[in-house]
Each structure stands twice: as structure tokens, then as C-alpha cells.
Amino acid sequence: MTQKDITFVADFLTEHFNEAPELYNRKGKYFNVERVGQYLKDEDDDLVSPPNTEGNQWFSFLKDSTHLKESPLLFPYYPEKSLHFVKRQMEGVIDQCLQKPADVIGKSVHQAVCMCLYKISQSEDSTPQLFKLPFLWNDKTSNLHYVLFTMLEDSISKIHILRRHTDTSRSVSNGILAVEFGNFLNNSINESSDSRCYSCLDAHFYDDETVTVVLKENVQQEGKERVLAQLPLS
Predict the structure, then answer these.
(1) Distance (Å, whole) CA 42 – CA 89
(2) Which of these, 139, 146, 163, lies nearest to 203 by C-alpha position?
(3) Which of 15, 53, 153, 189 is most exposed, with the fewest beta carbons within 10 Å of its own?
(4) Cα dihedral 78→82→87→92 (10° resolution)
(5) Distance CA 51, CA 35 (A)
(6) For residue 30, what are the β-bridge partners?
(7) DSSP secondary structure string, 215-231?
(8) Mean of the pLDDT values across residues 94-107?
(9) What Rg, from alpha-carbon coordinates, does the chain have?
(10) How many helices (H) and strands (E) does the chain have?
(11) Where's the Anaphase-promoting complex subunit 4 C-terminal half WD40 domain (predicted)?
């Protein structure tokens, strides 16, 4: 350790561990603890060195306001408690607020359509992940929902587009289709079909008429080519 390190530690001990006679009546609390660490302890005990709120403008403002002093819209302040205690209190309030909407929304949701995308063997111990990067888009102009996704292993060069009307009683043509990229970027017809094959790394809607995709060249060597393509939805 350098002399600078020793001085830093000595200053820290001098500042935070001075004897505190006012704490002698508290079991095991004979010194001022480090003032930041006490807020992070996951316990319900009161802080050993609570903050001094005297002169705080916010507390003075609340104290002088008859309307805000007892307002249920303000989260209560616990100056004697750690942040973990306050966090648990706030989580309880938030859970209580969200419970009613969750019940109402949950009861209003129902299945509009069921579509089989793939089947797996019942004997397999672990189910492979075949469904990847679902991205949702809502076309408010045409009242249409879109879902972009890819199916691994079987068709890595394809991106699937699922389209549904926001009114579940109505249907749309071509509810689901697949776009295959394959070797469409080959420079000439003489190139082999496997030499420049591309798969989709990611896909998002750019706007209501355009889909943006990131393509990867399916080759083993380093320096695989990446292509950013804008595809018209039509």
C-alpha cells in the first residue's frame, strides 16, 4: 500500500467511526456506521445514523401544505428505514394497484385463432427452440396486426409474416406467408446455389409498408458477409 492509500483509509475511519455516546444505549451500535452502506442493508431495523431532514425544502413544503400533507397520492417517507425496506413497501403498493387491471384484462382475453407451426416428437427429453425473434407491429391505418418470426433448423433462410385483423371477427387474405432469401444475392446464374446462401439474423418493421432485415451469409470461414435489406411488404 502507498502512503496515499493509508491516509485515505485513516481519514475514512476518522470520519465514520468516531465514538458516538448517543448510541451507547443501542446494543452493538457504539460507532457511526458508514453512511451509505446502512441504506443498502436488507433488514427492517431502523438506520443507525438517519439523515437530517431539517431545512429540507420538500419536507417544509409538505408540512406547510394542508392539501398535500395527507394526500394519498404521495408515497410516504420513512427517514428511519433503509432503501430495501422502502423498496418492499413500494412493491407492495404497486402490486396492489396492478392486481385489479390484471384481473379485468385477463378475463377479457380469449383465443381468436389456433395455428400449428410445427410438431415435435413426444419422446424428446428437451424441446428444441424452433421459434425465434418474434416482432410485433400494429398498422393502425389498416387495422392489422403483424408478427415477424423465423423457424430454426428447418428453414433458416425464411422469415415468416403472420397477419391478423384487429377485429377478430374479420379475416385477411394470406394470413401467414414465408419469404425465402436463399441465394437471391448471387451475382450471376453461374454461382452454385449453396455458395451465397443467406439466413435472417433479425427482422423488424421499418414502417407500415417496409420490413428491415439483417442477413448473414451461411459460410464457415471468418468474415461472413452481413446485409441490411429493406423489403417492401407488398
Answers:
(1) 13
(2) 146
(3) 189
(4) -60
(5) 9
(6) none
(7) EEE--SSSS--EEEEEE
(8) 90
(9) 31
(10) 3, 7
(11) 136-234
Identify whether the C-beta of residue 159 lies closer than 8 Å to the C-beta of residue 179: yes
199 and 185 Cβ atoms separated by less than 8 Å: no
- 89 in helix, strand or coil? helix
Quote the Cα angle for 180-168-232, to 5°. Answer: 30
The CA-atom distances, in angstroms, between 1 and each of 6, 11, 110 are 7, 15, 67
What is the pLDDT at residue 191?
A: 52
Residue with cell 409498408: 209
Q: Is the predicted pLDDT of residue 228 greater than 60, yes or no?
A: yes
* Cell matching residue 140: 393502425
CA 228 – CA 215 distance, rounded (Å): 6
Task: Examine the pLDDT at 206 and tell me if it is beyond 90.
Answer: yes
Q: Which residues pair with 135 in a beta bridge?
A: 148
The cell numbers describing 205, all together, are 418493421
pLDDT, tens only, 142-175: 899 999 988 776 566 788 899 998 887 887 877 8
